[in-house]
Each structure stands twice: as C-alpha cells, then as structure tokens.
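Bumping my old thread because nobody answered last time. Still need a sequence for this structure:
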C-alpha cells in the first residue's frame, strides 16, 4: 500500500526529527560522495574531447600543408609569361614541359556576317508573296519557308530553327527612323562556316513549300550579281536551285545603295606562326597545338611584331605553401604547449598535462623536423629553423634563393613520387567467334551486358563474314567494356593470339566475376588481382607518415578520441545508475520514516493519555 510521503506531512509525528530536511541533508551528503565525483570526471572528459578536437584540427591543417609540399601536383604547376606585342594570350595546364615559344598572328578567324536593310518594325512583313529560299553552311543546305505574313522577327526564328543553330539570325535596334536590322551570321568562325544563299526555282518535293528568284532576298536588302548566278544545279534536298553571289558594294546602283544590306565580315581561318611554322585553325582559341597549352589570338601583328611566351615552373604557390606550413605548425605547438603545461607555483595544469598521447606529439614531429635527408640537407638549408621556444621561423630570402637558383634540390627535398604497380588479367585462350556471345561480365563490381549475335550485321544490316565479322565482334566486345558506366582505370584489348586482355592503371585492382560458363567463353575466370599505389622518396614523406600515425584512421589520437568517447558513455551511464539508486534509496527511506512518524504519533498520543490518567489518579488521591 502506498504511503503518503508529502513533505508537508513528514516529521509531524516525530516532532520534526524524521523530517524531509533531514532526508535532504543525508541525500546531499551521499550525492556529494557518490555522484559529484562522476560529474567532475564527465566534465573533465568533455573538456578533453573539446581540446582534443582543437588539436586534431590543427594537426589536420598542418598535414594539409605538408601534403601540398610532398605531392607531385605542387611541382607540376606552370606559369606562362608573355612579352612583346601580346597579340596572343596563353594559359597552361599542370605538367606541361617548360619551354619558349614565338608567336606571330597574320589573320584572325572570323564569322560570316550579314546585315539586312533597315525596317520600321520587328513585326513588319518581309515578303509580298509566299517564298522558299536556301542557306548553305558547312557543306549542308537548309530550306527556309516563308509566306506573305511572315514578319522580320518570325523570319529570324525560321532561319535559326531551319539551320539547327549553325546560322544565327537576330534583330537589332540600331536607331534612326527605321531602326531594325536583321543580322545573319555563322555560329562558328572559320572558312568552313561560310554562308551562301540560293533561290529555289522548282522541285517542291525537297522540303520547299514555294519557289523564289534571284531577286527574292532583295526584300532584305541583299542584291545578287546575276552574272555569277548558277542555274541547273540541285541542293541536297533535291530542289532545283540557283546559287547566288552577293554584289560587291561598288557594283550596286545608286538606287540599290539606298536600300541595301551588306556583308559585315567574311568567314576566314586564323593564321599565325608558331616558332616560324605556319599554322591555320578555324578558331581564335587553339587547344590542340601543344597538349595542355591554350592559345587565344587577340589581334593581328604588325610587320616585325611577335609575342614571346616563356612557360616556367610556378613557384608562387610553393612559397605560400611553405608559409602556411610554418604558420600551421606554430599554431599547433602553441596549442599543445598550453594544453600540456604545469605551473608548479599555482598547481594549475593543462588539460592534457601528463597525457602521453598528447605530450609525445612534439617529440615525434621535432624528430623529423630536426632531421637530415640522405643528401645531407635539412630544413635550415631552405631558411626554416626551429627556435628555442620550439616554433618554426622562416627566412624568406634564403627560401627564395633556393627556389629560384636550386629548384631541383628544393623539389627533391620536399616532394615525393607516386609509384603505381599495375595488374593485368589475360585470357587463357582465344575467343571463338563462330557462336553467339551473350552473358554478363562483372569487372570491379560493374556489371556489363555482352550481347554479340552469331550472325553479326553492320550498321546497314548486312551480315558480315569471315575476318570482317571477327573484327567487328572484337570491336563490339571492347566497346561494351570501354563504355561501361562506372568502370574506370580499366582498359581492354586483344593480344596477338586473340586473347582478351584487361589492364588496370593508376594502381587499380582488377576483380572479375560472372557465370563460369560465360567467363570460359571469354577465356577468363573469377579472380582478383591487387594493384598497388606507393609514395616513395622525399624528406617530408616521414613527416606525412608520422601525421598519419597520429590522426589517420588507425592513428594514436584517433584511438584516444575513441577511448574518450567510450569513457564518456560509461561515466554517464554510471552517474545515471548511481543517481537512480540514490533516488530509490531515499524514496524508500521517506516511506519508512512516514510509517515511523505515524507510529511515534500514536505512541505519543497513548503516552499523553496514560499521563493524563496518572495525573487524574494523583489528583483524586489528594
């Protein structure tokens, strides 16, 4: 039966001896002895976790700086410095060979571009009758159908749509009483993108709804030289056509000049000299002359003008990486010194004072930083020294001198080389192509559907025979593997005996799976070959390895962090359990005291009754 243990009632019967005040004092004493120490440990644990996060973050930043200096990519960066006429802009990718080049621009690539006569409105109708005419570009003919209601704006849309965007037509407001002109231009530069116009004289079965004459496009202000018109030819759609040649401005009559459009620019290729060699390209942006080098032609050089380009090792980023490394190391050391210090006068200690996982960091790092390479070089040779306070200092003049005059020594000291061990899976027999080849081949977890028919057909549906069929089937298999989505760094080929060869690159593993019967047809079997990636050389490799040993997935600080997390969970559980036990203990005590309080009250009442009876008897005997 539950006993009412309200604070307002407990202690009434015992004269406030068995009271809540007494229970609270007893519970407070037990809490101080049993729970408070755990709360202190939990708080210390949280402080250590917080401070450890700060240290591991600083270690990670320091490791990033070290990795930048050890990685190959840092030393593959290039600068491209141009002097002279600056008619060419140059950008280079990492790893391009250091070199000099001399460039001279004779001609810039341009578009074919025409402007129509002026119109008073975008919505003004262009033609008096229904017409069809043609535009040719890049060796392909396009038919434009229009009618007497087609506006200037609609005609531009028809040209854009019909030519699949290869010819761009747009309306410009150029000002004046009749402010609108249509601009017709090739989307790309280069001589191959020359625009030609033609009239359609017959043959409505070839995409043309109507016909036109050599004067039809005079509605746009384009007058053609009739002496140059060509009759009796057909376009690629089968229409009878007349090729048109735009009149030169000096051949226009005075009346025609009043209402004439014109050719703004002529399609032409870029022409320039590279180290004295004549080069032609269809664009002013060239990325296929030298791998990793992009050239942009800006202007034509005058006689005797050239642009000289010097591609050199980029050092600016390296210097910044060195500075970042020094700063991140000093921030790390200042934090560790604060976390591990001990003041003998005040007795105050840092969070990790005496914690081996933290106190050993400085020793481990300094062992590397104070070391000497196999060539007898140290950080001091590059202007980086350790002060008596355990911090790094940088002499920029020494560093700059080493980078600018002895770069190879600098690179050999700091950088590492990534070495790959690649693996190759070779079929144990030649594939037989006389039967169908259908099944699933799984390479590195990527499932590839192979579906090669026995009677193999070309794209025109013709069944191939003998050597042609085998060659086509081989290509189909190689294509299926090469185009498999998600499969990278694996190439497929056939050796001289007709066996399938799968080769990994970049240290990639090769794992082959599939139905055993189908794999046998390919000459393969289920297997896994392990590639390997190894970083070798470089003074800082040891420092990088040490940092991995601290904050890597199996590092000592990673393990320490896990132990703190586990300890926090254990301490929290112990605290909650002890608190629960104390609460239960004093709830039970309150219930018992309430019972005792009731008993004492009853005894007190009985004692009062007896005392009253005794007193009454004594009074009666007087």
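Sorry it took so long. Here it is:
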């Amino acid at each position: 039966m539950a006993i009412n243990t309200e604070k307002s009632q407990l202690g009434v019967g015992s004269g406030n001896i068995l009271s809540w005040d007494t229970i609270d004092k007893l519970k407070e004493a037990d809490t101080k002895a049993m729970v408070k120490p755990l709360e202190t440990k939990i708080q210390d644990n949280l402080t250590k976790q917080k401070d450890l996060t700060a240290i591991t973050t600083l270690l990670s930043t320091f490791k990033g700086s070290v990795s930048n200096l050890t990685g190959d990519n840092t030393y593959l960066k290039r600068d491209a410095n141009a002097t002279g006429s600056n008619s060419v802009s140059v950008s280079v990718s990492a790893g391009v060979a250091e070199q000099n080049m001399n460039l001279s621009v004779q001609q810039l690539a341009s578009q074919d571009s025409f402007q129509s006569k002026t119109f008073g409105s975008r919505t003004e109708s262009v033609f008096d009758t229904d017409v069809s005419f043609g535009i040719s570009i890049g060796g392909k003919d396009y038919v434009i159908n229009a009618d007497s209601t087609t506006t200037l704006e609609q005609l531009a849309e028809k040209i854009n749509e019909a030519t699949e965007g290869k010819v761009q037509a747009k309306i410009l407001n150029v000002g004046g009483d009749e402010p609108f002109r249509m601009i017709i231009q090739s989307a790309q530069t280069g001589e191959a993108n020359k625009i030609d116009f033609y009239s359609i004289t017959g043959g409505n079965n070839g995409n043309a709804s109507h016909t036109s004459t050599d004067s039809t496009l005079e509605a746009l202000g384009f007058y053609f030289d009739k002496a140059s018109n060509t009759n009796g030819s057909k376009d690629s759609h089968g229409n009878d056509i007349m090729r048109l040649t735009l009149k030169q401005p000096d051949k226009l009559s005075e009346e025609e000049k009043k209402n004439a459009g014109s050719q703004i620019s002529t399609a032409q290729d870029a022409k320039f000299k590279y180290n004295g060699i004549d080069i032609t390209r269809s664009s002013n942006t060239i990325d296929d002359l030298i791998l990793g080098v992009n050239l942009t032609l800006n202007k034509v050089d005058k006689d005797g003008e050239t642009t000289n380009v010097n591609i050199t090792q980029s050092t600016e980023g390296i210097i910044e990486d060195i500075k970042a490394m020094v700063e991140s190391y000093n921030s790390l050391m200042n934090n560790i010194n604060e976390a591990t210090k001990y003041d003998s006068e005040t007795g105050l200690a840092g969070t990790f004072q005496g914690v081996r996982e933290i106190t050993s960091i400085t020793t481990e790092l300094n062992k590397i930083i104070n070391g000497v390479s196999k060539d007898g070089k140290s950080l001091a040779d590059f202007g980086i020294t350790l002060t008596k306070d355990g911090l790094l200092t940088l002499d920029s003049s020494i560093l700059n001198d080493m980078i600018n005059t002895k770069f190879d020594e600098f690179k050999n000291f700091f950088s590492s080389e990534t070495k790959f061990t690649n693996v190759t899976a070779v079929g144990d027999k030649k594939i037989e192509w006389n039967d169908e080849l259908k099944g699933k081949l799984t390479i590195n977890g990527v499932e590839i559907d192979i579906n090669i028919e026995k009677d193999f057909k070309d794209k025109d549906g013709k069944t191939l025979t003998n050597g042609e069929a085998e060659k086509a089937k081989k290509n189909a298999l190689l294509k299926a593997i090469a185009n498999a989505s998600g499969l990278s760094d694996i190439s497929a080929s056939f050796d001289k005996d007709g066996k399938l060869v799968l080769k990994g690159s970049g240290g990639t593993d090769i794992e082959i799976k599939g139905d055993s019967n189908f794999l046998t047809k390919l000459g393969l079997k289920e297997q896994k070959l392990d590639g390997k990636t190894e970083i070798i050389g470089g003074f800082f490799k040891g420092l990088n390895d040490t940092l991995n040993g601290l904050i890597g997935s199996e590092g000592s600080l990673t393990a320490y962090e896990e132990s703190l997390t586990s300890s926090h969970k254990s301490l929290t559980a112990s605290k909650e359990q002890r608190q629960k036990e104390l609460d239960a203990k004093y709830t039970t005590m309150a219930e018992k005291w309430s019972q005792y309080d009731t008993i004492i009250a009853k005894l007190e009442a009985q004692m009062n009754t007896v005392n009253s009876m005794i007193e009454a008897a004594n009074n009666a005997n007087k």
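The CA atoms of residues 433 and 470 lie 6 Å apart. Let me know if any region looks off to you.
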